[in-house]
Design brief:
Length: 592
């Protein structure tokens, strides 16, 4: 995961030199940075990037206080951190597990930095009219081990200086807007690289975990208990409590529920309001001992000591079911449909980030051949998208990463989602609409393959050594598109019809699909509602809602100050639904 903050001159010294360089703590006044780091047991900062030679610095050199005082601290703060389950494994695992996770974390950060240097970084001058590639950034990296509450949070702060050297040797401003634009793509590269290396080294696998209803699930390590993740995420409950109050105030001011964009803004406010003060840093050895004692006290010794074994047992089940195979034809469709439904107009960076997410969801921690994400992104753009950027006569053609695209996938109709806790119905998020559109198109492609195979009845003989296909065993390291569409390369001497190959595609995709997408969400909303499981679920929700309504009508309390913000909001919501709107002549409530 990757977040970005802007380093401004007025806050650089106070926050970054006395705070970030000191483990997100508060360094005593008058004490040198090196002495404070040694006394607190904190690792010193290191210089990274290809632009160090021009400043007389070397890769991996220690960041001193003098460097930070002479160096212009106008920069961007890139913060890389793993998923919560990986942080739990790092904090509670043995020395070997911690070394594997730390090494994978550093390599993933380095891979994301190299990608930003090679593909993104540019200098600009003359108010942006002049631009040049600059694959040489200057970065000060600081590793931290905990959050402000003292709970585990392995992460790296990368201070990317806002100056870069052109090929002619002149120093100009770095195009920070381009770095902002490619933040998501860099973050998905970091997450994919780190998760894959840890899973392959320790024999683990990933599963989807829904953090916020309606938003994209996070691929966590299978076998890590939800209680341990909640123990590590100390601020989440405080943020949710603050968000409830802020949302209630938003409804009172605007007379409606916040939409998806407003919910993001309210969540940011809640996070800022609940941000604790800086703490005194502690050595890693003390933190590890405290974390272990805290988890044993809360969950028991067996929960902590058997964590890695449980994760490996869960991974063995997943790896036995999901083979390291990617159907790149369906992957290109999925990526293009999701990006189009979410954004409508998009660039290559959006498609590349979604391709990396697709690999994480499909491979479940298995390694992919180098360049497979770029191949899927290029296939999604060339086969399922159309360019809307028109080159201007007499001007230089735009760079490939500046071209805009769109697509022509069908957009799902509007529907409502009723939560089980009795909250008012809500519209689906952009991600939920995108998943539904993608799965519908993939289902149509599978049906077409099966119908084509049934109509021809052709039988072909293919082998692992001679088959080139959209989907193949990842050990071969190839992913060219040459028909037929074989998935698991068959053994020598076996024969599969096209219909059997299409069935293999569907079986693999369903095996690799997150469980929550298999609960009837693989088709249109009408078919989803007609499944027996969901009919029973909707009937149960209806009976529960009717019971709550009858109990509420029989004994309706007047709104008072003792009611919580959610109860008062529901009372006002029900009253508004019964009152007509004088401007439109319709009720103000949500209509089914």
């Amino acid at each position: 995961m990757l977040s970005v903050a802007k380093v401004q001159r007025r806050t650089a010294w106070r926050y970054y030199i006395r705070g970030v360089a000191f483990g997100d703590g508060r360094r005593p006044v008058g004490q040198s940075l090196k002495d404070a780091q040694e006394m607190a047991g904190l690792p010193p900062g290191r210089w990274w990037g290809r632009g160090l030679a021009a400043l007389g610095l070397s890769e991996g050199a220690e960041v001193s206080e003098r460097h930070l005082e002479q160096t212009p601290l106008l920069a961007l703060d890139f913060t890389f951190r793993p998923q919560a389950s990986l942080i739990v494994l790092w904090a509670l695992g043995d020395a070997h597990t911690r070394r594997v996770i730390e090494r994978a974390h550093e390599r993933a950060v380095a891979a994301a930095l190299r990608w930003l240097e090679d593909e993104v970084a540019e200098t600009r001058w003359a108010s942006g009219r002049g631009r040049a590639k600059t694959p040489a950034l200057v970065v000060a990296a600081f590793r931290h081990y905990d959050n402000r509450d003292g709970f585990p949070l392995l992460h790296h702060h990368l201070l990317v200086l806002n100056r870069a050297q052109r090929p002619d040797g002149a120093w100009y401003a770095l195009d920070t807007y381009r770095l902002y634009q490619h933040t998501v793509a860099a973050g998905t590269l970091y997450t994919l690289t780190m998760t894959t290396e840890v899973c392959e080294a320790l024999g683990l696998a990933t599963v989807p975990r829904e953090v916020t209803p309606g938003l994209r699930p996070v691929m966590e390590i299978a076998g890590v208990d939800a209680g341990l993740i909640e123990w590590k995420s100390t601020r989440r409950q405080r943020i949710e409590d603050a968000l409830e109050t802020i949302t209630d105030q938003y409804v009172k001011e605007h007379g409606r529920l916040p939409d998806e964009r407003a919910r993001h803004g309210l969540g940011w406010w809640a996070a800022q309001d609940t941000r604790p003060d800086k703490k005194t840093p502690r050595p890693l050895e003390q933190l590890l001992a405290w974390w272990r004692a805290s988890t044993i006290l809360n969950f028991g010794k067996a929960m902590v000591e058997g964590l890695l074994e449980r994760c490996r047992a869960a991974a063995a089940v997943i790896r036995a079911r999901v083979r390291p195979v990617v159907d790149t034809a369906l992957a290109a469709v999925d990526v293009a449909a999701v990006v189009f439904t979410v954004r409508e107009k998009f660039a290559r960076r959006h498609v590349l980030a979604e391709a990396r997410r697709h690999l994480m969801e499909t491979l479940r921690g298995r390694a992919a051949p180098p360049g497979l994400d770029d191949y899927i992104a290029d296939a999604a753009l060339s086969r399922h998208s159309r360019q809307i950027t028109v080159p201007q006569p007499g001007r230089e053609a735009p760079a490939p990463d500046r071209v805009r695209y769109t697509a022509d996938f069908p957009v799902p109709d509007r529907w409502w989602i009723a939560d089980a806790d009795g909250a008012p119905p809500r519209e689906p998020s952009r991600y939920e609409r995108a998943r539904l559109a993608s799965l519908a198109v993939q289902g149509a492609i599978r049906d077409a393959r099966i119908r084509a195979g049934t109509a021809t009845g052709a039988t072909t003989t293919t082998s692992a050594s001679s088959t080139s296909a959209d989907s193949r065993d990842l050990d071969e390291g190839e992913h060219d598109q040459v028909p037929p569409h074989a998935v698991d390369p068959p053994r020598r001497g076996t024969a599969l019809t096209p219909a059997q190959r299409a069935a293999a595609v569907q079986a693999h995709q369903r095996a690799a699909m997150p469980e929550e997408y298999l609960q009837g969400r693989t088709t249109d909303p009408a078919t989803w509602l007609r499944t027996p499981e969901n009919l029973d679920r909707l009937a149960a929700l209806t009976r529960a809602a009717d019971a709550r309504r009858r109990a509420y009508e029989d004994n309706e309390p007047p709104p008072d100050a003792t009611a919580g913000p959610v109860d008062r909001h529901r009372q006002e919501y029900e009253q508004q639904r019964q009152q007509p709107n004088p401007e439109s002549g319709q009720g103000q409530g949500l209509r089914p």
